[in-house]
Design goal:
Helix content: 25-40%
CATH class: Alpha Beta
Structural class: alpha/beta
CATH topology: RbsD-like fold
Strand content: 15-25%
Shape: globular
Strand order of the largest sheet: 2-5-1-6-3-4
Radius of gyration: 14 Å
Number of domains: 1
């Protein structure tokens, strides 16, 4: 345990998040996501039993979103629904981001298969225990100034 560090951030997850540079993406995906297939040799860290909101909160507690990317946050859009439709899990992440000062137009709803393609470009996949459909999000790491 470390003081001030979210307890669900394991040493392995902290190592991978710390190794990421600005402009790199982390995918936080649900329990049913095809993470093994899409990881393609990238780090895959599992957080079983943890919701999308809670996992996203922990990840975002240790790095800022990229201010130089128009949409540094994204979620998988629900198929056959209007673009502005969100599941409860997605709404929870959007509300979490809003508390961090992220505007709605900075959060991109991405079509399901396009989201799979975007995950392939991620530097890290975190598979949480979210059990609802479309419980997937991505975040672009920003610069940390010291």
């Amino acid at each position: 345990m470390l003081k001030g560090i979210d307890p669900i951030l394991s040493p392995e997850l902290l190592m991978h998040l710390s190794a990421m540079g600005h402009g790199e993406w982390v995918a936080v995906v649900d329990a049913n996501f095809t993470a093994n297939y899409l990881a393609q040799g990238k780090p895959l860290v599992r957080l079983p039993g943890i919701t999308l909101e809670r996992a996203s909160q922990a990840v975002l507690s240790v790095f800022p979103l990229d201010e130089h990317v128009p949409q540094p946050a994204a979620y998988m859009r629900v198929s056959d629904m209007p673009e502005n439709h969100r599941t409860a899990a997605q709404n929870a992440v959007v509300q979490l981001l809003a508390k961090e000062g992220v505007k709605l137009d900075q959060i991109e709803p991405i079509e399901r298969f396009a989201f799979y393609d975007k995950v392939k470009t991620a530097s890290l996949i975190v598979q949480c225990g979210e059990g609802t459909a479309y419980g997937n999000a991505m975040f672009c790491k920003g610069v940390i100034l010291v």
